[in-house]
């Protein structure tokens, strides 16, 4: 009895690996690798950004001849503390009072803007109620109105309230800002999932409890950025405090204006020294909270 042997079907040879994968990886790595031109552009940008600050401190540490010197001095001088003492003792500018007032105004406005912006942003992003889109449109429209248009009616309102020359006049009108509400609304729409809100409701949390315990921690990166931007904007605001306040109740920007225009001949050293002193609180705020802001942004991007 003969046996039939069936020839085994030969297995196809494995395909050779494509050589293009290595090229793709190298091209991707090259795409995310900074070129020397990138470093040059970054260095130029950094130098141009910090030069006005450095120049303010350099002139503040010298005398008035440094302003018109050619070539200009690029190293600090020995007179910074004496110039700073002269600015702080200037009775016309009330510079110390201006620093205190600016700190109070900026802190109050920042805390209020962050609180109300996160609260309203959460409502517009995750809650359902009638007229939500119409109200959001109105808020966006308020961002399109220039500040100069509001000055006259706002000043008349402050006169009626008898708030002129008081800090309420530069705090109350800016406790809520449309930009903050819109910014937090956009961030909350993508950073907070609907499932997270539903899970909090299933656990029996009220809307306020959900905001405070679930939403607010998730909004921390955006709230930190908004707080820093609001503090800087309020600290540097000049036009409205100049209109509604006088020299007896100044902010730091009004005090700087008095230093620049309060004499027959402008003392540039006092102006630059006052500017340098006004910059110091902003630098302190950024140094103290900058790492937390960057860390919050990175944490939010990793969670996303």
UniProtKB/TrEMBL annotation:
Coiled coil: none annotated. Keywords: Cell membrane, Membrane, Transmembrane, Transmembrane helix, Transport. It is found in: Cell membrane. One of its GO terms (cellular component) is plasma membrane. The chain crosses the membrane at residues 29-55, 95-122, 134-157, 163-184, 211-232, 268-289. Residues 99-289 form the ABC transmembrane type-1 domain. The keyword Transmembrane applies. It comes from the Bacteria. SUPFAM superfamilies: MetI-like. Residues 1-21 are annotated as: Disordered. Signal peptide: none annotated. Gene3D superfamilies: MetI-like. This is Sugar ABC transporter permease. It comes from Dactylosporangium sucinum.
């Amino acid at each position: 009895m003969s046996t039939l042997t069936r020839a085994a079907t030969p297995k196809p040879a494995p395909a050779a690996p494509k050589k293009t994968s290595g090229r793709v990886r190298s091209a991707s790595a090259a795409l995310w690798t900074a070129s020397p031109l990138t470093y040059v552009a970054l260095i130029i940008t950094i130098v141009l950004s910090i030069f006005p600050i450095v120049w303010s401190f350099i002139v503040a540490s010298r005398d008035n001849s440094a302003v018109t010197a050619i070539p200009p001095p690029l190293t600090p001088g020995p007179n910074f503390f004496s110039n700073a003492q002269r600015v702080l003792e200037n009775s016309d500018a009330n510079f110390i009072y201006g620093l205190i007032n600016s700190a109070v105004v900026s802190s109050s406005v920042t805390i209020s803007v962050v609180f109300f912006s996160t609260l309203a942003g959460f409502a517009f992003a995750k809650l359902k109620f009638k007229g939500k889109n119409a109200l959001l449109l109105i808020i966006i429209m308020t961002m399109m109105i220039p500040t100069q248009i509001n000055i006259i009616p706002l000043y008349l309102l402050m006169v009626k309230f008898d708030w002129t020359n008081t800090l309420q006049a530069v705090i109350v009108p800016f406790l809520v800002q449309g930009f903050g509400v819109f910014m937090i609304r956009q961030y909350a729409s993508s950073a907070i999932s609907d499932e997270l809100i539903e899970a909090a409701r299933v656990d029996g949390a009220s809307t306020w409890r959900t905001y405070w315990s679930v939403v607010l921690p998730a909004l921390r990166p955006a709230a930190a950025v908004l707080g820093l931007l609001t503090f800087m904007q309020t600290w540097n605001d000049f036009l409205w405090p100049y209109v509604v306040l006088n020299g007896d109740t100044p902010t730091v920007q009004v005090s700087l204006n008095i230093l620049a225009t309060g004499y027959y001949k402008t003392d540039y050293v006092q102006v630059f020294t006052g500017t340098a002193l006004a910059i110091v609180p902003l630098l302190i705020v950024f140094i103290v909270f900058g790492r937390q802001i960057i860390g919050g942004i990175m944490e939010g991007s990793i969670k996303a």
